[in-house]
């Protein structure tokens, strides 16, 4: 009896400390963001200052090059990319994948202390972007129907740092490509293969050529 109690206690402990994604179907995607422009920037009050756009989750970050604002607007038309793993949504409502947010920011780049070559970054405006909603086959199909390219045109409101009622507008195009799908515990391998087939039918380009490069420096 004591052995049974001990066994039950160990099972409860393992369940409580198991990773929250354990056994769930997962897939790795590459997301490409073509950053077009940001408007209605705060006054930087510095003729030598420039700005960049960053996309970050935890310690990993993807950034654009620097651009100089002109009349509160900066333009890029530049692509930044990252790879992340999405997990099957637990609630199984209308969501295909569990939420995964990235912080999109406009950073002011200004000279550092006198006598140094370091540059100082300070956040001007930011928002949270849930990339999971753009990774389903339905989302890819809808984007392809609208634009013909499979990318989604977005205009995002970024709240000014320290001024909650003021916003900058970030314009970008977002697209995603399936890199690899893996079935979790309790799922058949056909479940993972179905993700690949569903998405590949909707996307205009094969993803195999980009998969190797995406695996190297992707953000999780």
From TrEMBL:
Biased composition range(s): Low complexity: 208-220
The protein's name: C2 NT-type domain-containing protein
Residues in coiled coil: none
Pfam families tied to this protein: NT-C2
PROSITE patterns membership: C2_NT (PS51840)
Biased composition range(s): Polar residues: 188-206
InterPro entries documented for this protein: NT-C2
Record-annotated C2 NT-type domain positions: 19-178
Source organism of the structure: Diacronema lutheri
Superkingdom in the source lineage: Eukaryota
Span list, region Disordered: 184-220
């Amino acid at each position: 009896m004591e052995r049974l109690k001990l066994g039950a206690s160990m099972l409860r402990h393992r369940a409580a400390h198991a990773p929250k994604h354990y056994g769930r179907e997962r897939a790795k995607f590459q997301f490409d963001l073509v950053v077009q422009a940001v408007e209605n920037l705060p006054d930087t009050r510095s003729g030598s200052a420039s700005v960049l756009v960053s996309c970050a989750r935890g310690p990993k970050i993807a950034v654009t090059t620097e651009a100089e604002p002109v009349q509160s607007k900066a333009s890029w038309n530049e692509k930044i990319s990252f790879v992340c793993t999405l997990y099957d949504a637990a609630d199984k409502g209308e969501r295909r994948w569990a939420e995964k947010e990235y912080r999109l920011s406009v950073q002011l780049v200004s000279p550092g202390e006198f006598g140094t070559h370091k540059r100082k970054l300070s956040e001007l405006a930011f928002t949270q972007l849930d990339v999971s909603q753009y990774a389903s086959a339905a989302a890819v199909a809808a984007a392809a129907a609208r634009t013909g390219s499979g990318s989604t045109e977005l205009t995002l409101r970024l709240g000014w740092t320290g001024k909650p009622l003021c916003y900058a507008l970030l314009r970008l195009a977002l697209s995603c490509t399936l890199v690899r799908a893996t079935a979790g515990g309790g799922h058949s391998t056909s479940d993972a293969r179905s993700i690949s087939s569903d998405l590949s039918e909707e996307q205009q380009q094969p993803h195999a050529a980009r998969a190797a490069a995406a695996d190297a420096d992707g953000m999780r």
